[in-house]
Amino acid sequence: MDATVVAKGRVEVRGGTLKVSRGQANKQSLEVGPETQVIGRNEACDLVLDDRKVSAVHMELVATERGVRVRDLGSRNGTFIGDTRVGEVYLMKPTSLTVGESLLEFSPTTPEQVDIPEVAQFGPLVGVSQGMRGVFERCRKAAPTDLTVLILGETGCGKELVAQAIHQASSRANKPFVVVDCGAIPPSLAESALFGHERGSFTGAVDKRISPFVEADGGTIFLDELGELPVDVQPKLLRALAEQRIKAVGSNNYRPVNVRVIAATRRDLVREVNAGTFRSDLYFRVAQLRIELPPLRERLEDIPALVRKMITDLGDPSANDRVTTDSLERLMRHDWPGNVRELRNVIAVALAFGKEGPIDLAQHLAPLVSASESTPTRGRTFQDAKREVLARFEREYFTALYAECSGNVSEIGRRAAMERAHVRGYLRRHGIGDPKKSSEP
Ligand SMILES: Nc1ncnc2c1ncn2[C@@H]1O[C@H](COP(=O)(O)OP(=O)(O)OP(=O)(O)O)[C@@H](O)[C@H]1O
């Protein structure tokens, strides 16, 4: 297994301290570093506020290069700075935050150097973007533990592959990796699909069904689309995870199981916890570690490495030399609603048609849909859809300005009426231009 980290890069993250200046809490202050911290009423939160106007999982904070990112997690009563209700803000100066009836005072601390691996691979996963290198680092930390992991991300961005990679890099690697797609189970059969059933235990139970927890014994179970699990089965799953034993439908006996759980979801489970449609205790049991996979449009710089890997995996490494530079550039201007899976399909089709001569990878690409033409919902929440449109707008705006100003960061800043540090942040986030150049003063 080549899940090795060969070299380290460093980034400077800006953290801070949050002090509870009004209200009851399990501690008086919280240090905010590069690991996400969650604040809410639920006792599993990092800072627990005993305040009835605070939601179970109210907001999260994390140190980033741009300051401490505060994100409201769809709380009922909101997160406020003064009279302004905030969704997502970056804090670099002392700031008072109000949640429910509690008051939290934020003060920044000295920026901290954090290692990020420079290696562009973790097992079968490739990617050079800072986002993916952060993901590899979290996978590397997760692998040797038995902690449950919740992987979040849009369709096709690699959640199952991340779960496999963690399993393969763990001591359970030579035991089974069993996938359960919770989204494909009819609600009435969910309990039996998770825990198995005895023969004749209900109408239609002609044969005994072995639980995937038994099939995965000693290994890892991957619960895909966990958010789809019916509410009435959620406490049963929680009990099974807590007690490490299961009971098949129609059986009176518990059976011990030794299984590591990795789950994934496309849905915003925290919002569902606050809405009461997903149990908070199960959420915290499954999300001992959270890994967020950025969508491909936010890490277009990963495309060349992904293309190389996929062409090699599809069985023709020599075809890499025939890929035209122009087509690679066109792939990097696409917005990839189907993420890495869409990229893989585009490559497979192009290879099938390009047995010899130059390969135009982009020839079968769906035309780029502009933000104004795209279907704004695509089954997503308002916040997710808005975030996506904004990200696309930012990328188009800075790509155009970067070209107009020949990459001169000061000039871009002047025209955008924005500080250079912020310009550099946007360029880096959207993979525009030469990242080394954009980090120069
Ligand atoms: N970082 C990566 N490196 C190499 N291949 C990748 C990477 N990410 C995803 N892929 C490939 O992209 C395809 C889609 O990935 P995967 O099935 O893991 O996505 P997913 O997020 O689980 O999708 P869904 O939400 O639809 O279940 C797979 O063929 C996978 O091998």
Automatic annotation (TrEMBL):
- FHA domain boundaries: 37-86
What does the record give under GO molecular function?
Answer: ATP binding; DNA binding
Annotated CDD domains:
AAA, FHA
Q: Which UniProt keywords apply?
A: ATP-binding, DNA-binding, Nucleotide-binding, Transcription, Transcription regulation
UniProt record, GO biological process: regulation of DNA-templated transcription
Sigma-54 factor interaction domain residues are: 125-352
Return the protein name: Response regulator of zinc sigma-54-dependent two-component system
Q: Which organism is it from?
A: Labilithrix luteola
